[in-house]
Amino acid sequence: MDTTPIPEEVMDADSVVSDVKPSVTTVVPVLPVAEGTSSETSTSANVVVVAEPVVVAQTGEALPAEANNENDNASEQNILSEIVSLRHAKQNIEEELLDVKEKCKELSTRNSELQSQVASSTENFGLKDELQKVLHEKAALLQEKNSREQEMRTIMSERERAHAETEVYANSRSWFLQEIAQRDNKCAEIKIEMEADEARRRLESARDATTRELAFTRAELEKYQRDHAKVSKQVQHLLFVMEKERRGEDEAMEDNEEENARLFNNIAQLQKINRRLESELEVAKTSAEQVVLTSKNAEIECLKRELESTRKAESSLKGELEQMHTTFDLLQAQTEQLKKLTEDNVSVAEARTAKIKAEEAAAKAQASELKVARLEEYIRALKEEREISERVHSDRAARNEQVVAEVKMTNARLEASFELQKQTTAVFEKELERAQKEFDQIREENDRLRSADAQMAGKVEQLQNELFDMQRKANNY
């Protein structure tokens, strides 16, 4: 027995049939239907049986009513109108039954198709199992995809958090760089101020030292002027006494005050003249020393040039001397050859020519020896001149050493101020080292953040690749 459910179209058809039944309360006898008949035949028989007994029953009811109530025309008219309406309803029901028959035929064909589909579906249980497996795998893949998407969301959230931290670190880095730039500017300003303060202190110390030296020089000058005035008065008095003693031998001049005053004035004028002459003598000495110094410098420069030229001449003469030695050796070789030729009993003409060549070679050798002697003497003279110039240079070097000693003393005074500047520079260097350490720490922190950002970017890229692979696998399934 077929256990397939009744299609919804059949149920709708039955409901339609029930809806179009007349509202008259009639009793419709139902005929029994054989089990072997089709659904279509049973449906049509039931419908026909339902329609015809309705008519019979209505007519059966009308006849007794007509026999019992002949005089009631109104009721008859109602019954007749109901009969007419029932006929119209019957016609409508017949038309609807035709439509229902067509629908039943369509439903039977669809039922057969469904039965064939069910039969074919029973044959494809293996495919259903495979489909179930595929569905289970697809569900597992979807679950895995969801888990991967969850991981990806967590990774993206971590990436956003890392990006936010990177932005925070970048902002902090920019802030630190701005602070460092501001501190560098402040350090530069402080350095300029410190240099200005150092220069001011140095100038003030130099001014104070100069003021002290000037005050000391003025005090010494005033002291020397007082001493000089005192000594001048004493000298004038002594000269006056000596002059009076010298003149007292000839004539007595003790009581002549005018003569004494004139003599005293003459002595003062003579002292002034002597001082002026001494100053002129000092100026002449300094000018003479300057002239001597300039002449010595000019002479030293001239000696240097001469020494250089003599060195060049010495080198050239050494070259010529070597060349003469080579020619002398060549002439000696030629004389040896001539001697050998004479010993080998050569002819008279050849012996004469050989003798002439030997004499010429001997003359050339003698001339070269004389020239070598003159050159050696000239070289000795050049050496003596060079020794003299070296002594002059050594004397000048000694004087330069004295100047250097004075310069060293000056440098010793300058070193004190340099030490003070050194201390201030050391303080500034400490501040600069501290700022440099802070900058190095900030740079190391920035490098660490960059490496962490690079690692996080690599991890995110790897997870994105894995997610793309999983999506591609899911799409393939």
Automatic annotation (TrEMBL):
<feature type="coiled-coil region">
    <location>
        <begin position="189"/>
        <end position="392"/>
    </location>
</feature>
<dbReference type="GO" id="GO:0005643">
    <property type="term" value="C:nuclear pore"/>
</dbReference>
<dbReference type="GO" id="GO:0017056">
    <property type="term" value="F:structural constituent of nuclear pore"/>
</dbReference>
<protein>
    <submittedName>
        <fullName>Uncharacterized protein</fullName>
    </submittedName>
</protein>
<feature type="coiled-coil region">
    <location>
        <begin position="425"/>
        <end position="452"/>
    </location>
</feature>
<dbReference type="GO" id="GO:0006406">
    <property type="term" value="P:mRNA export from nucleus"/>
</dbReference>
<feature type="coiled-coil region">
    <location>
        <begin position="83"/>
        <end position="151"/>
    </location>
</feature>
<dbReference type="GO" id="GO:1901673">
    <property type="term" value="P:regulation of mitotic spindle assembly"/>
</dbReference>
<keyword id="KW-0175">Coiled coil</keyword>
